[in-house]
## 1
Amino acid sequence: MTEEFKCGNGCGSMCARGCSRHADKLNTYDWLADLPDNAAACDVVEVQFKPPRKGYFLNVNHIPLQKGDIVAVEASPGHDIGTVTMTGRLVPLQLKKANLKPGTELKKIYRKARQVDIDKFNEAKRREHDTMIESRQIALALGLKMKIGDVEYQGDGNKAIFYYIADERVDFRQLIKVLADRFHVRIEMKQIGARQEAGRIGGIGPCGRELCCATWMTNFVSVSTAAARFQDISLNPQKLAGQCAKLKCCMNYEVDQYMESLKRLPSREITLHTKDSEYFFFKADILSHKITYSTDKKNLVNEKTISARRAFEVIQMNREGQKPDSLLEEDYEPTPTSSDLLNQDNITRFDSKNPKRKKNHKKKHHGGGNAGGQQA
């Protein structure tokens, strides 16, 4: 693989090492990978295990590593197998993002994985699904109110992490004994939330793209229905919930922009008065600063859509004891609206209007020589 990609005009280049092979879709582009001696700038290496679990290890033996190398790292007990996802100057920033304080004792990288290590690792991974299904049946037989969502075997096969979901506190001491006796490995139970489970399983969201929690999200911020209210989203639980049955994380993406735009709109409680009627707030297009008013509080009657600037003008006039002739501006021109093409004409206009001509056309082709003289 080449070390450098040349741009089309030949005047620049892009680092090829930063976008090389990686372990999974939760990948971080190393934009410092093309700097001289980047790999030797930091002894700490980022290693990816089963997504989304990552760890940071010391390269005490100064093994020449690059992104995509499979390594054997220290674990308790035994060793684990992972894939190098980052080396060099960008790793300290990743340590800060992971909230690892300076002076934290890190485990070591033993060596690059041998073929024997990889074969043992693949054998352990093949047992994960069957172990998860059987462990669910064991938990159900013990009457535990929990769901085992995933199982991850350590690279040497001596340990298994069971990821589970539970709404209440669960006493799984008996479960650990049964699992250890059944699978003959060291058992570790780790509780995760519904969003973490969706990220581990993956899927397609209603937007048509892969779930954010399965592609790039690592930290989950709480989502409230207030975000939906600020964006004027219908409070329909079926539409607000994601694959995890929790509120969609994407509701937080644009809420700050909506809150900023709401500051430029008048209060919904203010009634606008004209010489002939009074108008109540009905709905608003927050980002385009357009407000629709109605003469009825509950139904859309005699609706008028005006800009926020015009609404503030009318409010100021009302405060001064004046009432405009109309809610609309004098130079107002109605905005053309789109229409459904099917409503313009009957869809049967595409049908043939002269069936006789169609029959004659068939005779012309299949009637032989006598049909040649017929006129349609």
Note: Residues 1-14, 367-376 have pLDDT under 50 and may be disordered.
## 2
Amino acid sequence: MNLLLNNLSYLLIAAAVGQIMIAAINLRLDRLLHWDNELNNVSRLLREVFFVHKWFITIILVIFGALTIRFAVDMATGGYEMARWLAAGIGLFWGIRTLIQWTYYSTDHWKGNPARTAIHWILTFCYGGCATVYLVAAFR
């Protein structure tokens, strides 16, 4: 635990960079996963909602990343109550996302496919890692 606390600022910055990378990938997710046909076959409203949500999730992740880079030391030291609340909110966001990875998505999407299984586990560790780092910063 001391190793985590001693390097918390650096871990927060790493999480911030990771979030910005996820944001960039998120903008291309429909193309990366070859969802063009599926999105063309849904109603216009559903397609529009998908794209709006895609952009807003991307914006949120960039904001999380930028705020963390700017205030990593404040989050890590707990010097300001607002920094702790921000860390708690971002940690809760990633904690819920980690739970969704296992409780909402069907295992049919990845079981039996080594590449998708690897991606599933990588995402679980990334999301869970972000949750852990931010929640440690919030509640240390």
Note: The two ends are 10 Å apart (CA to CA).
## 3
Amino acid sequence: MSFTAKDVAELRAMTGAGMMDCKNALKETDGNMDEAVNYLRQKGIAKAAKKAGNVAAEGVVTSASGSNAAVLVEINTQTDFAAKNEDFIAFVKQVADTALANKTATIEALLAADLGGKSVADTQTELTAKIGEKIDVRRVALVEASGTVASYVHPVGSKIGVLVGLSTDAADKAADVAMHVAAASPAPEFITRDEIPADVIAKEKEIESQKDDLAGKPAEIVEKIVTGRVDKLLAERVLLEQPFVKDPGTKVSAFLGGASVEACVRFNLGEGIEKKEEDYAAEVAAAMKV
């Protein structure tokens, strides 16, 4: 029986074992998933297997910066308590430094990267077993710029991180824009209006045109109102058109002068992760039956 990269990923999710360990296990068991799990357990590699299915939505967002390049990394834990563990904190720094040194742009490359003789993925699995909570190096972003790159990680909880690359060497401006992106509400989705896909604009127009307050109005009036409303909505989502947080009377584009934003990335810790709702009453009831 053969196996695929998807099988390797599935086995990793089931056991928390490293990529190469999972490949070897599937090879040794001729692609049989159940036997591969047992193989890893027998080898003592799947110590963290029971943690692999747990939801890790806490943790930190961190960054590492060079002169004109920087990385943003999100590493998750199950609780805030584990995120304060000294071993976890050291691991976070090592992973970020490794990502920057290798200019890593994908999570696959980061997990496979060397970290003191072991891969990041294997070190992650060992740390999961040691701490007793699932550790998940979830995502990484690399930003390089012709001028300068600024990083900003909100100091309270390290839950929001931003990278901004500018065409100018003005580090102070880059830092201010990065802080703006972290603080802006709504967070910018696009750098310029030109980046907005046509289908997004069409959808916004469709939504606005069907609102009750436009019912019965002449078509030309509806078109004019819809255009104005959509323009305002889109401006809120475009970085350069947002009011600058330090001076709301000035747009970000005006603050930058002639400089252009070449790249912008924002991580909000845990976004997109469906957190498990705990039923503590049910847990107590179940415990009492034991």
Note: Strands lie at 58-65, 69-77, 114-115, 118-119, 136-144, 148-153, 160-166, 243-244, 247-251, 261-268.
## 4
Amino acid sequence: MAKAREGGCLCGKVRYRALGPPNNVTNCHCRQCQMAAGAAFVTWAEFPAGAVAWPAETPLWYRSSARAERGFCPACGTTLTFRYLEGDALDIAAVTLDDPDALPPEDELWTASRRAWAPGDERLPRHPRERKPG
């Protein structure tokens, strides 16, 4: 049976359940993630979109670029998700998991825009921009 991971927003209005293991877990230092979350970086756990369910309320979606949109709680504003418009994956902000320590990051993306005062994890592979396929 696939492991279920649950989480939600600060106020508890939007909850989710993700089944199975994530495709990857990544610290993203891109400028859009910084601005959307109001933080130096966001740790995303990417799941197949079909593996994520919203038992009650669903996030509101904001089109953050020509290629992607971000989901957030309509009540408290918690950044919850990121997804490309073309594709079948859904990134969940790992810190919104009920057990955020269960999915540590595996690499770092967009380190070219990492804040100088926000040290990265030297143990992780780094990619100046997007992860190269393969």
Note: The radius of gyration is 14 Å.
